[in-house]
Amino acid sequence: MPESGIPDDGKETSGTAGGGRRADRTGTGADGRPPGRAAARKARAKGGRGRKKPKPRWKRVLIWTSGSVALLVLAVGGGAFLYIQYLNSQIERAPLDLGDSDLAAPEPDENGNTPLNILLIGSDSRDGEENQRLGGRADLAGDPVRADVQILLHASADRSNATLISIPRDTQVPIPQCTDPETDEVYPAHESASINTAMYYGGPGCVVATWKELTGIYIDHFMMVEFYGVVQMADAIGGVPVCVDANMEDPKTHLRLEEGPNTLEGEDALQWLRTRYAFGDGSDVGRARAQQMYMTSMAEELQANMSLGDAGQLMDLAEAAVDALTVDDALGSVTSLYDLGQDLRRIPADRINMITLPHLPDPDDPDVTLIPDQEPAEELFALVRDDRPLDGEEEAPAGGDGEEGGEPPAEEEPIDPALVPVAVQNGTGADGLAPVDGRAGDITDALRAAGFARAETDTSAAVAESQTSVYYGDVDDRPAAEAIAEALGLPGSAVRNSTTHDALTLVVGADWREGTEFPQEAAEEEEGAGEGGSAIDPDDVHSTEDNDDCIAVNPLYTW
Predict the structure, then answer these.
(1) Of 127, 93, 91, 116, whose CA–CA distance to 17 is shortest?
(2) Which residues contact residue 195 at a Cβ distance below 8 angstroms, ignoring those fewer than 6 apart?
(3) What is the pLDDT of residues 271-295, one digit of tens each?
(4) Which residues lie closer than 8 Å to 453 by C-beta, 6 or more apart?
(5) 105-142 burial, b if ≥16 CB within 10 A, otherwise e?
(6) SS in 3 state form for 463-524?
(7) CA-based nearest residue to 391, from 344, 346, 350, 347
(8) In sequence order, what E strands does 34-171 have?
(9) Residues with Cβ < 8 Å from 109, sequence gap 6 or more?
(10) For the chain, how far is it from start to end, CA to CA, in angstroms?
(11) Beta-carbon count within 10 A of 441 CB
(12) In DSSP terms, which residues pair with 23 in a beta bridge?
């Protein structure tokens, strides 16, 4: 797959730059005092340039990072207010969403808690001497910036678990219309383009808009960092532990590691994140797994090693983090970042689960680009929208088992099929087969016979689907969708959340071309596709506990 502006092969794509330019920070801060140590080191490294590099935007970790970032503020004592003001002045901000999505934020649960979705972005910007030195290709300075690393962090409403979704940068997705916040230029929508190019169209806010359109998930915040920010953070934390199952060497990034545990500091941390071909099978999938390992390890280091007694380390970390981040406007203060970090620290380390977006080779260019694998991808997005954990371990409410000290959970009211409206569509003309006339009407009659008096045949839309599915748009409609599936003998995996179906809709697929009860053989086959009938392969899900396992090295990159 093409390297997006990284010196591995030098391929580039033209477009409109999404990054901005800022003033140098080598002078005094907003409070009249000189910048802290991290900023001073940065100024020396840059040789006192008069222009500030665009604010960092690189990836993950920065979430817990930014939370711990402001721990320092509490440690500095009497000068805290001025120091907070100084740190605030160093944080780069940008609008959250440049699209026109009308997605609403999730409603609070019964305890008043809401889930949290944060998009973590890493750019390949070559603006600034340090980014050019670390990324190579200084000739790319000022060129369009790509979002080559994109991870969506979903923290459950009760903070009992988290799901992180990575997406390979060459995945082809729709990019919505975006408006540049600085120039008011309106960029038209693209039916299909590499997701890492969304940054071209006004900056990180268009990346957020693209994810919202792709997933139907409301996004609360973004965090972004560039090459130099990764180095700063790795140095400030004292190194990030990783593990490889063989001696590895990548001639493109010059990363060389011995088999077993390694601690990445400085530029080695950046090169680990940029290494593409040396992990797994040499694809972006192996690279994403390596990035996930790095992220979770860094989060654990932040949680385990930060000490309020080490003010020097806290100051280094605080200054490195604010200097490394570009965030949305709502996160643009140290106190907001601190509150976020403290909130996310509640998530148990063993309930952080990671997955790369299920994908397939792009039919238009199978050797170069990818497309989302629609069935498991939609199931994954539905889990996040419904705030259900990727590991399937639903948390029982306190006292929910009826023991002393708690109330038993309220029982759900049974579904009355006579009150459930459902549209039935004929999608049997999939997989190269001709549609079977009358299938929607036959299944409508079967549903009515089962008590679903409001079932109606819908011929208004032409559909073709391989598998029969019951779609629901509102989470509250899921029990009714499950009741429909049960009445027809459909597997649990047939029930799917959807952003394109406003009402309950049953699509009769090519797997059900005759009869009024779903074929048992097909039900068993679909129920067995992944754990618990899921289309998501459980082997693709990784947790923080998997960091004890060394990542596989591509045999072509060993020594």
Answers:
(1) 127
(2) 147, 150, 167, 169, 170, 171, 172, 173, 175, 207, 210, 214
(3) 887 787 899 878 777 777 787 788 7
(4) 417, 418
(5) ebeeeeeeebbbbbbbbbbbbbbbbbbbebbbbeebee
(6) CCCCCCEEEECCHHHHHHHHHHHHHHCCCHHHEEECCCCCCCEEEECCCCCCCCCCCHHHHH
(7) 350
(8) 51-52, 92-94, 116-123, 147-155, 162-166
(9) 157, 158, 387
(10) 24
(11) 13
(12) 51
**27-31, 116-120, 341-345, 552-556: least confidently modelled range:** 27-31
CB 198 within 8 A of CB 210: yes
Give the C-alpha separation, 378 to 443, whole Å.
24
Is residue 125 pLDDT above 60, yes or no? Answer: no
Are 424 and 458 within 8 A, CB to CB? yes
What 190-193 contacts at long range (C-beta under 8 Å, 24+ apart), as own/partner pairs, is none
Residue ranges of the alpha helices (H) in 70-202? 71-75, 80-90, 129-135
Neighbours of 322 (CB within 10 A): 28
* Residue showing tokens 């929208």: 385
CA–CA distances in Å: residue 489 to residues 91, 134, 379, 450, 518: 55, 58, 20, 12, 5
pLDDT at 78 over 80: no
DSSP type of residue 396? P
Between 237 and 464, the higher pLDDT residue: 464
**What percent of the chain stands above pLDDT 70?**
71
For residue 262 the two structure tokens come to: 């390694």
Residue pair 135/7 in contact by the 8 Å Cβ criterion: yes
Q: How far apart are CA 168 and CA 286, in angstroms?
A: 10
Say how far apart CA 331 and CA 530 lie, in whole Å: 38
Tell me the C-alpha distance between 152 and 114, whole Å: 16
> How many residues appear in the chain?
559
CA dist 297 and 547 (Å) reads 7
Task: Spell out the alpha helix ranges (H) of 165-242.
Answer: 204-215, 227-237
pLDDT, one tens digit per residue, over 44-55 is: 333 333 333 433
Distance from C-alpha of 243 to C-alpha of 262, rounded to nearest angstrom: 6
List the structure tokens of 275: 């290494």
Residue appearing with tokens 């490195």: 320
469-472 and 186-187 strand pairing:
unpaired
Residue 434 has pLDDT above 80, yes or no: yes
**Gyration radius of the chain's alpha carbons:** 25
> What's the confidence (pLDDT) of residue 147?
83
Residue 208 forms beta bridges with which residues?
none
| Closest among 279, 281, 305, 277 to 292, alpha carbons compared | 279
Q: Return the structure tokens found at 295.
A: 């992220």
pLDDT band at 524 (very low <50, low <70, confident <90, very high): low
